[in-house]
Amino acid sequence: MSEKPENRNPSTTRRDRRSFLLALGAGPAGLSAARAVAAQGSRSPEKKPIRLGLIGCGGRGNYLAQKVLALAEEGEPVGFTAACDIYQPRLERTATRLKAKEYKSAADLVRDRNVDAVIIATPDRVHVYNALEAVRASKDVYCEKPLSHWAQFEKLKELVREVRARGTVFQVGAQWVSDPMWARAAKEIREGAIGKVVHAQTGYFRHGDQGERGMKIDDPNARPGVGLDWEAFQADAPRRPFSVSRFFQWRLYLDYSGGPATDLYPHPMTRLFKALGVGLPKKVVALGGRYVYDGGRTVPDTFDLIIEYPEGPNVAVLGTIANNTGIETVIRGTKGTVAYTGDAGLAFSPQPGEDAPRRTIRTDRTVAEHLANFLQSIRTREKPACDIELGYRVQVPLIMAMLSQIEGKVAVFDADKEEIHLV
Length: 423
Ligand SMILES: NC(=O)c1ccc[n+]([C@@H]2O[C@H](COP(=O)([O-])OP(=O)(O)OC[C@H]3O[C@@H](n4cnc5c(N)ncnc54)[C@H](O)[C@@H]3O)[C@@H](O)[C@H]2O)c1
What we know:
Elements: H1 4-7, H2 13-26, H3 33-43, E1 50-55, H4 59-73, E2 78-84, H5 88-98, E3 101-103, H6 106-109, E4 117-120, H7 124-136, E5 140-143, H8 153-166, E6 170-172, H9 181-190, E7 197-205, H10 230-234, H11 244-248, H12 260-263, H13 266-276, E8 283-289, E9 302-308, E10 314-320, E11 330-333, E12 336-340, E13 346-350, E14 359-361, H14 367-380, H15 388-407, E15 411-414, E16 419-422
Parallel strand pairs: 1-2, 1-4, 2-3, 4-5, 5-6, 7-10
Antiparallel strand pairs: 7-11, 8-9, 8-15, 9-10, 11-12, 12-13, 13-14, 15-16
The structure holds nicotinamide-adenine-dinucleotide.
């Protein structure tokens, strides 16, 4: 059985984009940032308006913008003052709709004094650079998952150090973790509800490569130049000749993505890790490959990883994009089990003869609330639902898994030196 939220995945973006365009065309969602901020500010005088900059005006960026504008309509004093993209047609389209100032470079946008915080929705390889620039410019950050590309461990550590040192409010865009049931489960598990946690599993199963191959090529004749900054797109990726597929369908290529493992697994992993409260791993091993989909892609379509933590638990994360028959998300303790039952929530049950609770923690959150949680954290300076520490604890095993699968070795984490070694 596949679990619904795992299958509500990033590839729904194009449909979301269409509804966003319709919503904007229809009216109030198209309010300018200044008007939205002013209007909302007058309704909630005690709340200072939050002025956002959007970095990355593609599918996800526009979807999140729509969600922010919906929050503004509901009374949250928030709006966009700036937008950035290195592809002119997308930048123009989004900036015009948001009535935001246009920037061709994120480094310039983060210097804008009319921006308090940024939303980063660029391709994976660019996240860590955008985020570092924003954090160093004292902006709070909502950064889409994955926190970094799989080949950027050193840069990722730099970002984490910088966020810690500056006290930045940093929300990673793994939105399902904003459902408070995961934090509640974490508390109960920490307090011993199911005994010592020894094993856990989760996964992401889907049928069809719509998330990768399905990315739309806006313009087959697009070329690098004034309106398309190919250098900025590549960030620290190996230099390749421009191709429209690489630019518009970047999820197909290991240079810019890790495939389903880094694109999809952050969702189930983040909420599972929130409940588990695990730290950094000891070892990770991963297997997988391109078993079904090819046509020039370099990312695997099927990918399984197992993480070993010091003193346990073992965590298995499995998946393929060629079949949507999923596995349950389960946490196994010596006294009881927690099973994610989709819409019903998290079911606790005892092991035979053990004194563990039998009950369900109900589910109750949406994507907008992850953004609302970010805005709330900016105001209170409290940690958001998916702060940099949780994001890092998800990203490290993902990086290790990618290296393990690609190199055919076991990835070992040296906790003293904070290094990954392949053996
Ligand atoms: N949380 C979720 O459920 C979810 C869903 C979809 C996508 N995402 C994440 O959002 C990110 C974007 O995905 P997408 O589907 O919107 O991709 P996309 O290709 O549609 O959009 C990315 C945009 O970033 C722009 N860009 C590239 N390099 C840039 C740079 N250096 N500076 C500024 N802009 C740059 C591109 O021109 C493009 O417009 C990805 O990291 C993805 O994992 C998350």
